[in-house]
């Protein structure tokens, strides 16, 4: 790689490479799902560029394919991505010296993976008394993910458009959500949240504007919080939160 590239940027790119094994197939599914749901190739790619968040992007595609009201689609995406507020608040101190324009650009490419890798790097630097040029490491991670995600989505769109209608690839979306769900169910609160959210979403399938998904998400989150505060998350009845962590392997997102 060009020696003029900042070393921290190179480190970010290098540390991201193992993650691409999970990102690439997820991006391909997002592209295929958009075409399957009836979006044009341009609309699918545009949604990917604007939203850039795997789980919420697929949720939006699913709702758009079922002619849900635009307000419901936007609200669903916002709820799914609320964790980004916590990520932003946590990592913001490391970017406070940057201009507002640079911080806005960094916020756009914020994902689970970019947050986790960058925070670990910056906290490690602080503990060791060393320094990483910010935001180069973060951008090395985040921009690599963004480029690969968009490229994968485009390939998925091309592949999806070439598949005969009789093949019907709509099953890909629920399979991806199951792949995201299973590793995240690691304790009683997450299991309770998943079961309640799924049940409410199914029961609410007939709600106006296809609002069953958003209602299920809200009730599921509330259930998980209630179970965690009850002490079920740590198994000792002390009421503290559990030590399990949730992560979205494509979100970028």
Describe this structure in words.
The model is unreliable at 236-250 (pLDDT under 50). It is globular and about 55 Å long. 67% of the residues lie in helices and 0% in strands. It has a domain at 7-172. With 253 residues, it is an all-alpha fold. It is built from twelve helices and no strands. The protein has helices at 7-16, 20-36, 41-51, 54-65, 70-80, 83-91, 100-108, 112-128, 136-162, 172-184, 188-203, 212-229.
Keywords:
single chain; 253 residues; mainly alpha; 67% helix; globular; cell membrane; transmembrane; transport; membrane; transmembrane helix
What's the N-to-C terminus distance? 27 Å
Mean pLDDT: 79
SSE pattern? HHHHHHHHHHHH
Question: What is the strand tally?
Answer: 0
Which outline best applies? globular
Task: Briefly summarize what is shown.
The protein is mainly α. The protein has helices at residues 7-16, 20-36, 41-51, 54-65, 70-80, 83-91, 100-108, 112-128, 136-162, 172-184, 188-203, 212-229.
Give the helix/strand layout.
Elements: H1 7-16, H2 20-36, H3 41-51, H4 54-65, H5 70-80, H6 83-91, H7 100-108, H8 112-128, H9 136-162, H10 172-184, H11 188-203, H12 212-229
């Amino acid at each position: 790689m060009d020696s003029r590239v900042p070393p921290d940027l190179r480190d970010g790119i290098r540390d991201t490479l193992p993650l691409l094994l999970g990102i690439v197939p997820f991006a391909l599914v997002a592209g295929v799902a958009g075409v399957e749901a009836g979006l044009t190739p341009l609309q699918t790619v545009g949604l990917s560029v604007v939203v850039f968040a795997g789980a919420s992007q697929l949720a939006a595609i699913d709702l758009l394919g079922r002619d849900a009201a635009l307000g419901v689609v936007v609200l669903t995406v916002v709820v799914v991505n609320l964790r980004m507020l916590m990520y932003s608040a946590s990592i913001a101190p490391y970017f406070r010296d940057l201009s507002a324009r640079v911080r806005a650009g960094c916020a756009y490419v914020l994902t689970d993976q970019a947050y986790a890798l960058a925070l670990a790097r910056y906290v490690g630097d602080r503990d060791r008394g060393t320094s990483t040029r910010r935001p180069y490491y973060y951008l090395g991670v985040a921009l690599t993910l963004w480029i690969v995600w968009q490229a994968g989505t485009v390939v998925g769109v091309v592949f999806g458009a070439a598949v005969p209608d009789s093949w019907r690839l709509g099953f890909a979306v629920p399979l991806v959500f199951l792949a995201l769900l299973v590793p995240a169910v690691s304790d009683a609160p997450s299991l309770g949240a998943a079961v309640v959210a799924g049940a409410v979403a199914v029961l609410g399938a007939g709600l106006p504007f296809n609002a069953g998904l958003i209602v299920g998400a809200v009730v599921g989150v509330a259930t998980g919080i209630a179970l965690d505060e009850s002490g079920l998350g740590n198994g000792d009845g002390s009421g503290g939160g559990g030590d399990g962590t949730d992560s979205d392997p494509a979100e970028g997102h």
